[in-house]
User: Which sequence fits this backbone?
């Protein structure tokens, strides 16, 4: 019998990127052949299981196809490791691929709104047009008389036509059908999705205002309405392959809310100690040694005046003092770890998105290993492309799309991928600045989309893009209690940059 302790078992599953319950760990440790049992589990993993529990250890298959999450408790602090001389910042290169900072052209004039929507339509329609032969909406109106004569019942089959338009209105008929009004630069037209086409109708229930979509169908006899037979989203291509990247680990987090009375200072300090290698947990120490990047996707501090009565929930009343405290925490993080910080709706930048990086007065307090970017921003981490977006549009998607909720934030992120747009709904909860270019369109497909804002953690794969919502470092606020939002604080996704397998470390216990 070869004995194994809990650290050995946890490490075995961490290296493969899987989650396992404490009870299952204990059972494997007590098994007469723990190594053989672990190998059997890893070799026969079923794609439907995310968390390996006791009930799975007697089955023939275990595992996960998507997020590959491991939950691990931290133990702080006893020993630390020494960073070698070669582990310097230059070993962890960073390239900013896209960022609104210093490139904003918006002054709020009418013509800018026109330019913004035309740019959105142009970018997204080009993606759809590569998959369908669409015609301008204006041509449908010109040919109504022809459609009417050719399309009459008994005079021949109606031919399919395709259009690409931005959705300007969504309504339901008395029979429950969906009627969407769509427009392109040449005109507007109405399309109908019937309840009898169940799969098509289900897809239509996920469509939102201002989204650019392709429709294929036939015209009614009077030529005034299209009966939809196919809906074409911009979406990610099905041929995308899952790539392997560089080496080491990237930690993704957000919504720290330093300065709030509900900021979880002790777990956050445990997290900092983990980054420094101060832990008696061998598995945690091994992970810590491999950390190359730390990405913070907005709401680094709690801010001032974000909502009525906020001053009653602050421990630090001055926003500059909040950022100085955040800078002090960053000073404690080993200098070989490159830190990337983008803003959120609680940060000291304009509320309208896209948001520029934090101002120089604030940036000056932070150490040299911190890089500031806007929101959203695409960065390259030594070959791995990560799109940081704070995720405020999830509020809009929760209200508009069935199945999207604060408890399942990655469902909203999946919709972003399908829309090829981070914030498709204009004029709702998210204030969007009408820039000449729509910076929310996903021209470049990331390897990882990293969001925050909703304070709940989630990990999911969609067409070989890793979607991560990184939770929070703030306990439940009074506002969240009223909204029945239950946060998942002090949990940290760690991504292996060679495989993109994700581990979740817990610092809340």
Assistant:
């Amino acid at each position: 019998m070869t004995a194994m302790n809990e650290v050995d078992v946890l490490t075995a599953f961490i290296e493969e990127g899987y989650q396992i319950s404490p009870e299952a760990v204990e059972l494997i440790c007590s098994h007469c052949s723990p190594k053989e049992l672990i190998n059997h589990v890893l070799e026969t993993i079923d794609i439907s299981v995310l968390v390996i529990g006791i009930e799975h250890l007697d089955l023939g298959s275990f595992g996960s196809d998507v997020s590959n999450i491991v939950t691990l408790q931290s133990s702080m602090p006893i020993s630390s490791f020494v960073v070698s001389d070669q582990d310097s910042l230059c070993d962890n290169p960073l390239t900013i691929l896209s960022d609104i900072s210093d490139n904003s052209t918006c002054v709020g004039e009418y013509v800018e709104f026109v330019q913004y929507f035309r740019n959105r339509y142009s970018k997204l329609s080009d993606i759809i047009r590569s998959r369908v032969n669409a015609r301008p909406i204006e041509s449908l109106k010109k040919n109504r008389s022809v459609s009417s004569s050719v399309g009459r019942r008994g005079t021949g089959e109606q031919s399919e036509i395709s259009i690409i338009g931005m959705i300007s209105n969504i309504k339901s008929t008395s029979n429950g059908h969906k009627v969407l009004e769509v427009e392109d630069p040449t005109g507007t037209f109405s399309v109908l999705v019937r309840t009898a086409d169940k799969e098509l109708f289900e897809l239509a229930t996920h469509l939102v205002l201002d989204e650019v979509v392709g429709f294929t169908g036939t015209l009614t006899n009077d030529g005034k309405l299209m009966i939809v037979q196919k809906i074409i989203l911009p979406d990610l291509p099905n041929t995308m392959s899952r790539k392997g990247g560089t080496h080491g680990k990237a930690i993704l987090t957000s919504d720290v809310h330093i300065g709030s009375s509900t900021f979880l200072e002790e777990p956050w300090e445990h997290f900092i100690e983990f980054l420094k290698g101060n832990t008696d947990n061998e598995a945690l120490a091994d992970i810590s040694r491999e950390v190359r990047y730390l990405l913070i996707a907005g709401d680094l501090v709690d801010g001032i005046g974000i909502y009525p009565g906020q001053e009653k929930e602050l421990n630090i009343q001055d926003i500059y003092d909040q950022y100085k405290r955040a800078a002090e925490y960053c000073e404690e993080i080993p200098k070989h770890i490159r830190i990337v910080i983008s803003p959120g709706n609680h940060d000291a930048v304009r509320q309208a998105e896209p948001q520029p990086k934090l101002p120089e007065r604030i940036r000056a307090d932070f150490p040299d290993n911190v890089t500031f970017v806007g929101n959203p921003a695409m960065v390259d981490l030594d070959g791995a492309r990560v799109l940081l977006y704070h995720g405020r549009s999830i509020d809009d998607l929760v209200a508009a799309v069935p199945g999207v909720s604060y408890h399942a934030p990655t469902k909203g992120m999946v919709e972003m991928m399908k829309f090829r747009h981070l914030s498709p709904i204009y004029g709702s909860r998210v204030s969007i600045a009408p820039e000449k270019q729509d910076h929310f369109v996903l021209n470049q497909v990331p390897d990882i989309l990293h969001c925050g804002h909703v304070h709940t953690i989630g990990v999911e794969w969609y067409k070989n893009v890793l979607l991560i919502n990184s939770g929070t470092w703030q306990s439940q606020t009074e506002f969240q209690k009223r909204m029945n939002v239950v946060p998942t604080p002090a949990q940290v996704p760690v991504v292996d940059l060679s495989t993109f397998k994700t581990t979740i470390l817990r610092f809340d216990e």
User: Anything to note?
Assistant: Residues 90 and 306 are 38 Å apart (CA to CA). The first helix runs from residue 6 to 16. Confidence is low (pLDDT under 50) at residues 59-86, 146-156. The first strand starts at residue 19 and ends at 20.
